[in-house]
Specification:
elongated; 13 strands; five-stranded parallel beta sheet; five-stranded antiparallel beta sheet; alpha/beta; about 40% helix
Amino acid sequence: MNTSPHILVVDDHQEIREVVAKLLKKEGFRVTTAADGTAMRAALSGNRISLIVLDLMLPGEDGLSLCRSVRAESQIPVIMLTAKGEEIDRVLGLEMGADDYVAKPFSGRELVARIRAVLRRAEALPEDPHAPQAEGYVFAHWRLDTAQRHLEDAEGTIVPLSTGEYDLLLAFVERPQRVLNRDQLMDLARGRASAAFDRSIDTQVSRLRRKIEGDPKNPELIKTVWGGGYVFTPKVDKA
């Protein structure tokens, strides 16, 4: 049985699908391709997908909506492809739960490097349906479910988290009321070996604040310790 990672490439341009598929197969990956959201969902239902390379601009349901849908149902890593250079598109993709993005035109080497980096991060916390259910954490009006790896509000609504955001929040809830500097958070959240985000911990914290704080500009849960790092202030209980 071939146990190499299975990559799903979703792009409406046939030439791009074929080029990326050929590249990834050459690198030892298994590859399935899809032209739109309908074909993507069919591929997901019939295969155990390791990672999705998802184009932002698709006919019908766009990549942002599809990414949000994937994140609400699973923790399959998603790398967004975007032809746009505006930062807002990248931010929106990450807010919808994408793990990384690659701007078109991109080099094959860059895409493969980012796929491998995201897979390494995802494999650090593998999903095993037969494993014992992990305990969750409750803080403020939130519940972090460590079995399903998602965040729920008081009404039970799931808030999409990228792999990086989940790992960062887990690092905080496991160490409440402790000052954690940036180097410690880098190590705890994703390890120094991973460079998929090439963004600072400060930016990652800002994105997380926008999801869990009542007023992200005046945070109460993740407070900045000037010159020291950050401290997660609420009382944390195991669910």
